[in-house]
Amino acid sequence: MNDTKKVGRPKTFDEHTALQAAVDTFWVKGYDGASMKDLTSAMGINSPSLYATYGDKETLFIKAIEHYMGNVDCSPLDAFENEPDIQKAVYAFFEAIVTYVSEHEKGSLGCFLSSCVVTCAETVEGVKPLLQTAITESEKRIAKRFDQAKNAGQLPKNFPSKQRARLMFDLRQGPVFRARAGLPAKSIRQDMACWAHAVLN
Amino acid sequence: MNDTKKVGRPKTFDEHTALQAAVDTFWVKGYDGASMKDLTSAMGINSPSLYATYGDKETLFIKAIEHYMGNVDCSPLDAFENEPDIQKAVYAFFEAIVTYVSEHEKGSLGCFLSSCVVTCAETVEGVKPLLQTAITESEKRIAKRFDQAKNAGQLPKNFPSKQRARLMFDLRQGPVFRARAGLPAKSIRQDMACWAHAVLN
DNA sequence: GCAATTTTGTAACAAACGTTATAATATTAG
DNA sequence: CTAATATTATAACGTTTGTTACAAAATTGC
Protein backbone atom coordinates (compact mmCIF):
# COMPACT_ATOMS: atom_id res chain seq x y z
CA MET A 1 0.00 0.00 0.00
CA ASN A 2 2.57 2.55 1.13
CA ASP A 3 5.27 1.44 -1.29
CA THR A 4 5.29 4.74 -3.20
CA LYS A 5 8.90 5.75 -3.63
CA LYS A 6 9.69 8.92 -1.73
CA VAL A 7 12.38 11.47 -2.29
CA GLY A 8 14.64 12.46 0.57
CA ARG A 9 16.68 10.91 3.34
CA PRO A 10 15.03 7.70 4.55
CA LYS A 11 13.94 7.14 8.15
CA THR A 12 16.57 5.43 10.29
CA PHE A 13 14.07 3.98 12.76
CA ASP A 14 10.91 1.89 12.76
CA GLU A 15 7.85 3.86 13.76
CA HIS A 16 6.12 1.01 15.56
CA THR A 17 9.21 -0.10 17.47
CA ALA A 18 9.87 3.45 18.64
CA LEU A 19 6.22 3.86 19.62
CA GLN A 20 6.43 0.69 21.67
CA ALA A 21 9.45 2.17 23.45
CA ALA A 22 7.36 5.24 24.19
CA VAL A 23 4.65 3.02 25.69
CA ASP A 24 7.20 1.33 27.93
CA THR A 25 8.61 4.66 29.07
CA PHE A 26 5.20 6.13 29.87
CA TRP A 27 4.27 2.87 31.56
CA VAL A 28 7.09 3.15 34.08
CA LYS A 29 7.21 6.91 34.63
CA GLY A 30 3.72 8.14 33.80
CA TYR A 31 2.76 10.88 31.37
CA ASP A 32 4.09 13.85 33.33
CA GLY A 33 6.94 11.88 34.86
CA ALA A 34 8.37 10.90 31.48
CA SER A 35 10.41 13.76 30.03
CA MET A 36 11.00 14.25 26.32
CA LYS A 37 14.61 13.34 27.03
CA ASP A 38 13.48 10.06 28.62
CA LEU A 39 11.33 9.38 25.58
CA THR A 40 13.86 10.24 22.88
CA SER A 41 16.51 8.21 24.68
CA ALA A 42 14.28 5.16 24.96
CA MET A 43 13.00 5.53 21.41
CA GLY A 44 16.50 5.98 20.02
CA ILE A 45 15.69 9.15 18.10
CA ASN A 46 16.21 12.89 18.44
CA SER A 47 13.47 15.30 19.34
CA PRO A 48 13.00 16.80 15.85
CA SER A 49 12.35 13.30 14.48
CA LEU A 50 9.90 12.66 17.28
CA TYR A 51 7.98 15.87 16.66
CA ALA A 52 7.94 15.35 12.90
CA THR A 53 6.66 11.79 13.23
CA TYR A 54 4.30 11.86 16.21
CA GLY A 55 3.59 15.51 17.01
CA ASP A 56 3.98 17.00 20.48
CA LYS A 57 4.11 15.11 23.77
CA GLU A 58 0.36 14.98 24.22
CA THR A 59 -0.21 13.65 20.72
CA LEU A 60 2.54 11.09 21.20
CA PHE A 61 0.86 9.93 24.38
CA ILE A 62 -2.48 9.48 22.62
CA LYS A 63 -0.77 7.56 19.82
CA ALA A 64 1.03 5.42 22.37
CA ILE A 65 -2.31 4.52 23.95
CA GLU A 66 -3.83 3.71 20.57
CA HIS A 67 -0.78 1.61 19.70
CA TYR A 68 -1.11 -0.28 22.97
CA MET A 69 -4.81 -0.87 22.42
CA GLY A 70 -4.46 -1.96 18.83
CA ASN A 71 -1.12 -3.63 18.43
CA VAL A 72 -0.02 -5.02 21.75
CA ASP A 73 -1.03 -8.60 22.32
CA CYS A 74 -3.02 -8.88 25.50
CA SER A 75 -1.89 -12.29 26.62
CA PRO A 76 -4.66 -12.78 29.20
CA LEU A 77 -7.40 -12.18 26.63
CA ASP A 78 -5.54 -14.33 24.11
CA ALA A 79 -5.26 -17.15 26.62
CA PHE A 80 -8.96 -16.83 27.36
CA GLU A 81 -9.98 -16.98 23.71
CA ASN A 82 -7.68 -19.77 22.65
CA GLU A 83 -8.44 -22.34 25.35
CA PRO A 84 -11.36 -24.47 24.05
CA ASP A 85 -12.73 -25.49 27.46
CA ILE A 86 -14.47 -22.51 29.03
CA GLN A 87 -13.68 -23.50 32.61
CA LYS A 88 -10.00 -23.84 31.80
CA ALA A 89 -10.20 -20.66 29.70
CA VAL A 90 -11.36 -18.53 32.61
CA TYR A 91 -8.67 -19.96 34.81
CA ALA A 92 -6.08 -19.43 32.08
CA PHE A 93 -7.19 -15.80 31.89
CA PHE A 94 -6.45 -15.14 35.54
CA GLU A 95 -3.29 -17.19 35.44
CA ALA A 96 -2.06 -15.09 32.51
CA ILE A 97 -3.05 -11.91 34.33
CA VAL A 98 -0.60 -12.61 37.14
CA THR A 99 2.27 -13.13 34.73
CA TYR A 100 1.29 -10.11 32.65
CA VAL A 101 1.13 -7.64 35.54
CA SER A 102 4.18 -8.82 37.43
CA GLU A 103 6.64 -10.08 34.87
CA HIS A 104 6.49 -7.67 31.96
CA GLU A 105 9.57 -7.86 29.78
CA LYS A 106 10.47 -4.19 30.19
CA GLY A 107 10.16 -4.38 33.97
CA SER A 108 7.04 -2.23 34.11
CA LEU A 109 4.44 -3.46 36.55
CA GLY A 110 0.66 -3.55 36.41
CA CYS A 111 -1.25 -2.53 33.31
CA PHE A 112 -0.38 0.41 31.06
CA LEU A 113 -3.97 1.64 31.03
CA SER A 114 -5.03 1.02 34.62
CA SER A 115 -1.71 1.74 36.34
CA CYS A 116 -0.48 4.69 34.29
CA VAL A 117 -2.84 6.23 31.74
CA VAL A 118 -5.62 6.37 34.32
CA THR A 119 -3.86 9.09 36.31
CA CYS A 120 -4.09 11.72 33.59
CA ALA A 121 -7.63 10.87 32.54
CA GLU A 122 -8.74 14.24 33.84
CA THR A 123 -5.82 16.32 32.61
CA VAL A 124 -4.95 15.08 29.10
CA GLU A 125 -7.62 15.60 26.50
CA GLY A 126 -8.72 12.52 24.62
CA VAL A 127 -7.66 10.03 27.26
CA LYS A 128 -11.05 9.37 28.79
CA PRO A 129 -12.76 8.28 25.55
CA LEU A 130 -9.89 5.91 24.82
CA LEU A 131 -10.11 4.35 28.27
CA GLN A 132 -13.85 3.91 27.89
CA THR A 133 -13.36 2.26 24.53
CA ALA A 134 -10.72 -0.05 25.96
CA ILE A 135 -13.07 -1.10 28.74
CA THR A 136 -16.08 -1.78 26.55
CA GLU A 137 -14.05 -3.53 23.85
CA SER A 138 -12.45 -5.84 26.38
CA GLU A 139 -15.83 -6.68 27.83
CA LYS A 140 -17.23 -7.41 24.38
CA ARG A 141 -14.40 -9.82 23.61
CA ILE A 142 -14.97 -11.65 26.88
CA ALA A 143 -18.75 -11.78 26.47
CA LYS A 144 -18.37 -13.10 22.93
CA ARG A 145 -16.29 -16.00 24.18
CA PHE A 146 -18.92 -16.78 26.82
CA ASP A 147 -21.62 -16.79 24.14
CA GLN A 148 -19.59 -19.27 22.12
CA ALA A 149 -19.34 -21.51 25.16
CA LYS A 150 -23.10 -21.24 25.67
CA ASN A 151 -23.71 -22.28 22.07
CA ALA A 152 -21.31 -25.18 22.55
CA GLY A 153 -23.27 -26.30 25.58
CA GLN A 154 -20.42 -25.61 27.98
CA LEU A 155 -22.45 -23.08 29.91
CA PRO A 156 -26.14 -22.95 30.87
CA LYS A 157 -28.36 -21.10 28.42
CA ASN A 158 -29.19 -18.43 30.98
CA PHE A 159 -25.55 -17.65 31.72
CA PRO A 160 -25.32 -13.82 31.86
CA SER A 161 -22.39 -13.37 29.45
CA LYS A 162 -22.19 -9.59 29.53
CA GLN A 163 -22.44 -9.28 33.28
CA ARG A 164 -19.85 -11.99 33.89
CA ALA A 165 -17.61 -10.29 31.35
CA ARG A 166 -17.78 -7.12 33.42
CA LEU A 167 -17.12 -9.19 36.55
CA MET A 168 -14.04 -10.69 34.97
CA PHE A 169 -12.85 -7.27 33.90
CA ASP A 170 -13.36 -5.77 37.35
CA LEU A 171 -11.66 -8.70 39.06
CA ARG A 172 -8.70 -8.18 36.76
CA GLN A 173 -8.05 -4.75 38.27
CA GLY A 174 -7.19 -6.25 41.65
CA PRO A 175 -4.08 -8.15 40.58
CA VAL A 176 -3.09 -5.15 38.46
CA PHE A 177 -3.10 -2.91 41.53
CA ARG A 178 -1.37 -5.45 43.74
CA ALA A 179 1.41 -6.00 41.25
CA ARG A 180 2.00 -2.29 40.75
CA ALA A 181 2.20 -1.93 44.53
CA GLY A 182 5.02 -4.44 44.44
CA LEU A 183 3.30 -7.43 46.00
CA PRO A 184 4.94 -10.67 44.85
CA ALA A 185 3.36 -12.70 42.05
CA LYS A 186 3.09 -15.71 44.32
CA SER A 187 0.79 -13.94 46.75
CA ILE A 188 -1.41 -12.72 43.91
CA ARG A 189 -1.61 -16.10 42.21
CA GLN A 190 -3.00 -17.83 45.30
CA ASP A 191 -6.46 -16.37 44.71
CA MET A 192 -6.85 -16.78 40.96
CA ALA A 193 -8.58 -20.17 41.10
CA CYS A 194 -11.12 -18.67 43.47
CA TRP A 195 -11.64 -15.66 41.20
CA ALA A 196 -12.25 -17.98 38.26
CA HIS A 197 -14.78 -19.87 40.34
CA ALA A 198 -16.60 -16.60 41.16
CA VAL A 199 -16.93 -15.82 37.47
CA LEU A 200 -18.31 -19.22 36.52
CA ASN A 201 -20.74 -19.84 39.38
CA MET B 1 -0.06 17.30 74.39
CA ASN B 2 1.43 19.90 72.09
CA ASP B 3 0.12 22.89 74.06
CA THR B 4 3.58 24.19 74.88
CA LYS B 5 3.59 27.92 74.23
CA LYS B 6 5.92 28.84 71.42
CA VAL B 7 7.63 32.11 70.68
CA GLY B 8 7.28 33.63 67.24
CA ARG B 9 4.67 34.44 64.66
CA PRO B 10 1.81 31.92 64.81
CA LYS B 11 0.80 29.77 61.86
CA THR B 12 -2.00 31.25 59.79
CA PHE B 13 -3.20 27.90 58.41
CA ASP B 14 -4.27 24.52 59.69
CA GLU B 15 -1.78 21.78 58.87
CA HIS B 16 -4.36 19.06 58.36
CA THR B 17 -6.67 21.17 56.22
CA ALA B 18 -3.78 22.20 53.98
CA LEU B 19 -2.59 18.61 53.73
CA GLN B 20 -6.06 17.55 52.66
CA ALA B 21 -5.92 20.19 49.92
CA ALA B 22 -2.61 18.68 48.81
CA VAL B 23 -4.26 15.25 48.63
CA ASP B 24 -7.03 16.64 46.45
CA THR B 25 -4.56 18.36 44.14
CA PHE B 26 -2.40 15.25 43.74
CA TRP B 27 -5.56 13.20 43.27
CA VAL B 28 -6.63 15.20 40.23
CA LYS B 29 -3.27 15.95 38.61
CA GLY B 30 -0.98 13.18 39.82
CA TYR B 31 2.38 13.54 41.55
CA ASP B 32 4.37 14.86 38.57
CA GLY B 33 1.40 16.69 37.07
CA ALA B 34 0.84 18.77 40.19
CA SER B 35 3.27 21.68 40.32
CA MET B 36 4.35 23.39 43.52
CA LYS B 37 2.36 26.39 42.32
CA ASP B 38 -0.74 24.19 42.00
CA LEU B 39 -0.13 22.89 45.49
CA THR B 40 0.56 26.19 47.23
CA SER B 41 -2.49 27.74 45.54
CA ALA B 42 -4.77 24.91 46.62
CA MET B 43 -3.31 24.81 50.11
CA GLY B 44 -3.56 28.57 50.51
CA ILE B 45 0.04 29.03 51.60
CA ASN B 46 3.35 30.21 50.13
CA SER B 47 6.16 27.90 49.23
CA PRO B 48 8.44 28.78 52.17
CA SER B 49 5.65 27.81 54.58
CA LEU B 50 5.13 24.59 52.66
CA TYR B 51 8.80 23.65 52.76
CA ALA B 52 9.13 24.56 56.44
CA THR B 53 6.08 22.50 57.40
CA TYR B 54 6.16 19.47 55.11
CA GLY B 55 9.60 19.34 53.47
CA ASP B 56 10.14 19.05 49.73
CA LYS B 57 7.63 17.84 47.16
CA GLU B 58 8.44 14.17 47.58
CA THR B 59 8.12 14.36 51.37
CA LEU B 60 4.86 16.26 51.04
CA PHE B 61 3.54 13.54 48.75
CA ILE B 62 4.42 10.81 51.24
CA LYS B 63 2.77 12.80 54.04
CA ALA B 64 -0.30 13.31 51.84
CA ILE B 65 -0.55 9.54 51.35
CA GLU B 66 -0.15 8.90 55.06
CA HIS B 67 -2.77 11.55 55.82
CA TYR B 68 -5.16 9.92 53.37
CA MET B 69 -4.57 6.49 54.84
CA GLY B 70 -4.91 7.58 58.43
CA ASN B 71 -7.30 10.49 58.59
CA VAL B 72 -9.63 10.28 55.63
CA ASP B 73 -12.83 8.40 56.34
CA CYS B 74 -13.21 5.58 53.87
CA SER B 75 -16.98 5.60 53.53
CA PRO B 76 -17.21 2.16 51.85
CA LEU B 77 -15.34 0.47 54.68
CA ASP B 78 -17.31 2.46 57.24
CA ALA B 79 -20.58 1.40 55.62
CA PHE B 80 -19.40 -2.19 55.64
CA GLU B 81 -18.45 -2.14 59.31
CA ASN B 82 -21.50 -0.29 60.61
CA GLU B 83 -24.28 -2.31 58.99
CA PRO B 84 -25.16 -5.15 61.42
CA ASP B 85 -26.49 -7.60 58.82
CA ILE B 86 -23.56 -9.03 56.88
CA GLN B 87 -25.51 -9.51 53.66
CA LYS B 88 -26.64 -5.90 53.70
CA ALA B 89 -23.18 -4.82 54.80
CA VAL B 90 -21.48 -6.28 51.74
CA TYR B 91 -24.06 -4.69 49.50
CA ALA B 92 -23.67 -1.37 51.33
CA PHE B 93 -19.94 -1.59 50.74
CA PHE B 94 -20.31 -1.79 46.97
CA GLU B 95 -23.09 0.77 46.98
CA ALA B 96 -20.82 3.20 48.84
CA ILE B 97 -17.98 2.42 46.45
CA VAL B 98 -19.92 3.77 43.50
CA THR B 99 -20.67 7.03 45.27
CA TYR B 100 -17.13 7.35 46.58
CA VAL B 101 -15.40 6.89 43.22
CA SER B 102 -17.76 8.97 41.11
CA GLU B 103 -19.07 11.73 43.35
CA HIS B 104 -16.15 12.92 45.40
CA GLU B 105 -16.67 16.39 46.83
CA LYS B 106 -13.59 17.89 45.22
CA GLY B 107 -14.51 16.50 41.80
CA SER B 108 -11.66 13.99 41.75
CA LEU B 109 -12.62 10.61 40.36
CA GLY B 110 -11.63 7.09 41.33
CA CYS B 111 -9.47 6.41 44.37
CA PHE B 112 -6.46 8.46 45.46
CA LEU B 113 -4.32 5.38 45.91
CA SER B 114 -5.37 3.23 42.95
CA SER B 115 -6.01 6.02 40.43
CA CYS B 116 -3.14 8.37 41.25
CA VAL B 117 -0.49 7.21 43.70
CA VAL B 118 -0.15 3.91 41.87
CA THR B 119 1.47 5.57 38.85
CA CYS B 120 4.58 6.68 40.69
CA ALA B 121 5.00 3.49 42.69
CA GLU B 122 8.18 2.79 40.76
CA THR B 123 9.59 6.31 40.70
CA VAL B 124 8.95 7.84 44.13
CA GLU B 125 10.75 6.21 47.01
CA GLY B 126 8.60 5.05 49.87
CA VAL B 127 5.38 4.77 47.87
CA LYS B 128 5.36 1.01 47.36
CA PRO B 129 5.54 0.11 51.07
CA LEU B 130 2.68 2.50 51.80
CA LEU B 131 0.54 0.98 49.07
CA GLN B 132 1.24 -2.51 50.36
CA THR B 133 0.28 -1.45 53.86
CA ALA B 134 -2.93 0.13 52.60
CA ILE B 135 -3.86 -3.08 50.82
CA THR B 136 -3.18 -5.42 53.71
CA GLU B 137 -4.79 -3.13 56.28
CA SER B 138 -7.96 -2.85 54.22
CA GLU B 139 -8.11 -6.61 53.85
CA LYS B 140 -7.65 -7.08 57.57
CA ARG B 141 -10.53 -4.73 58.38
CA ILE B 142 -12.80 -6.59 55.96
CA ALA B 143 -11.76 -10.03 57.19
CA LYS B 144 -12.31 -8.96 60.79
CA ARG B 145 -15.89 -7.98 60.00
CA PHE B 146 -16.46 -11.35 58.32
CA ASP B 147 -15.14 -13.13 61.40
CA GLN B 148 -17.57 -11.18 63.55
CA ALA B 149 -20.42 -12.29 61.29
CA LYS B 150 -19.22 -15.88 61.57
CA ASN B 151 -19.24 -15.66 65.36
CA ALA B 152 -22.73 -14.16 65.21
CA GLY B 153 -23.91 -17.10 63.13
CA GLN B 154 -24.56 -14.95 60.05
CA LEU B 155 -22.05 -16.86 57.98
CA PRO B 156 -21.11 -20.56 57.86
CA LYS B 157 -18.23 -21.56 60.09
CA ASN B 158 -16.05 -22.50 57.12
CA PHE B 159 -16.50 -19.13 55.42
CA PRO B 160 -13.01 -18.13 54.16
CA SER B 161 -12.89 -14.61 55.63
CA LYS B 162 -9.43 -13.65 54.46
CA GLN B 163 -9.88 -14.87 50.92
CA ARG B 164 -13.28 -13.20 50.55
CA ALA B 165 -11.77 -10.02 51.96
CA ARG B 166 -9.20 -10.09 49.16
CA LEU B 167 -12.00 -10.80 46.68
CA MET B 168 -13.91 -7.79 47.90
CA PHE B 169 -10.82 -5.65 47.68
CA ASP B 170 -10.02 -6.78 44.15
CA LEU B 171 -13.61 -6.28 43.00
CA ARG B 172 -13.44 -2.76 44.35
CA GLN B 173 -10.74 -1.85 41.82
CA GLY B 174 -13.13 -2.31 38.92
CA PRO B 175 -15.53 0.52 39.78
CA VAL B 176 -12.54 2.67 40.70
CA PHE B 177 -11.11 2.25 37.21
CA ARG B 178 -14.44 2.71 35.48
CA ALA B 179 -15.20 5.91 37.36
CA ARG B 180 -11.78 7.38 36.64
CA ALA B 181 -12.32 6.58 32.96
CA GLY B 182 -15.43 8.73 33.13
CA LEU B 183 -18.09 6.03 32.90
CA PRO B 184 -21.33 7.19 34.55
CA ALA B 185 -22.16 6.07 38.08
CA LYS B 186 -25.41 4.54 36.87
CA SER B 187 -23.64 2.08 34.59
CA ILE B 188 -21.27 1.09 37.37
CA ARG B 189 -23.99 0.67 39.96
CA GLN B 190 -25.91 -1.88 37.89
CA ASP B 191 -23.45 -4.65 38.76
CA MET B 192 -22.91 -4.04 42.46
CA ALA B 193 -25.64 -6.40 43.65
CA CYS B 194 -24.04 -9.15 41.58
CA TRP B 195 -20.59 -8.35 42.96
CA ALA B 196 -21.96 -8.58 46.50
CA HIS B 197 -23.47 -11.94 45.64
CA ALA B 198 -20.10 -13.16 44.34
CA VAL B 199 -18.46 -12.28 47.64
CA LEU B 200 -21.04 -14.02 49.78
CA ASN B 201 -21.58 -17.24 47.82
C1' DG C 1 8.89 48.34 75.51
C1' DC C 2 12.64 45.63 73.89
C1' DA C 3 14.88 41.49 72.46
C1' DA C 4 14.19 36.94 70.74
C1' DT C 5 11.87 33.94 67.71
C1' DT C 6 8.96 32.01 64.21
C1' DT C 7 6.14 32.55 60.11
C1' DT C 8 4.95 35.26 56.29
C1' DG C 9 5.22 37.35 51.43
C1' DT C 10 8.20 38.67 47.63
C1' DA C 11 11.41 37.70 44.63
C1' DA C 12 15.04 35.37 42.94
C1' DC C 13 17.84 31.18 41.73
C1' DA C 14 19.80 27.45 38.75
C1' DA C 15 18.15 23.50 36.43
C1' DA C 16 15.07 21.08 33.60
C1' DC C 17 11.20 21.39 30.78
C1' DG C 18 8.82 21.06 26.00
C1' DT C 19 9.65 22.79 21.60
C1' DT C 20 11.84 24.55 17.37
C1' DA C 21 15.35 26.96 14.18
C1' DT C 22 19.33 25.76 11.60
C1' DA C 23 22.44 23.28 8.97
C1' DA C 24 24.45 18.93 7.62
C1' DT C 25 23.29 14.36 5.57
C1' DA C 26 21.34 10.91 2.63
C1' DT C 27 18.36 9.66 -0.68
C1' DT C 28 15.56 10.00 -5.59
C1' DA C 29 14.33 12.23 -10.12
C1' DG C 30 15.95 13.95 -14.26
C1' DC D 1 26.26 15.16 -11.73
C1' DT D 2 22.84 18.37 -10.25
C1' DA D 3 18.60 19.84 -8.16
C1' DA D 4 15.05 18.76 -5.08
C1' DT D 5 13.48 16.69 -0.95
C1' DA D 6 13.06 14.47 3.42
C1' DT D 7 15.39 13.22 7.77
C1' DT D 8 19.04 13.70 10.71
C1' DA D 9 21.94 15.93 14.63
C1' DT D 10 23.25 20.02 17.23
C1' DA D 11 22.13 23.64 19.70
C1' DA D 12 19.38 26.99 21.19
C1' DC D 13 14.82 29.11 22.49
C1' DG D 14 11.62 31.00 26.14
C1' DT D 15 8.96 28.84 30.12
C1' DT D 16 8.19 26.52 33.89
C1' DT D 17 10.04 23.71 37.31
C1' DG D 18 11.38 22.88 42.39
C1' DT D 19 13.72 25.29 45.83
C1' DT D 20 15.60 28.96 48.73
C1' DA D 21 17.49 34.04 50.33
C1' DC D 22 15.80 37.83 52.23
C1' DA D 23 13.35 41.11 54.82
C1' DA D 24 8.88 42.41 56.82
C1' DA D 25 5.33 40.93 60.19
C1' DA D 26 3.49 38.97 64.35
C1' DT D 27 3.83 36.75 68.48
C1' DT D 28 6.07 35.60 73.61
C1' DG D 29 9.25 36.28 77.64
C1' DC D 30 11.40 39.45 80.49
Helical element count of chain A?
A: 11
Rg from Cα of chain A: 19 Å
On the 0 to 100 scale, the average pLDDT of chain A is 95
Q: Multimeric state of these chains?
A: homodimer
| Largest pleated sheet of chain A | none
Shape of chain A: elongated
Question: What ranges of chain A have pLDDT less than 50 throughout 5 or more consecutive residues?
Answer: none
Helicity of chain A, in percent? 55-70%
Secondary structure tally: strands of chain A: 0
Find the structural class of chain A using helix and strand composition. mainly alpha
Q: What percent strand of chain A? A: under 5%
Distance, first to last CA of chain A: 49 Å
Largest interface: A-B, 45 and 45 residues
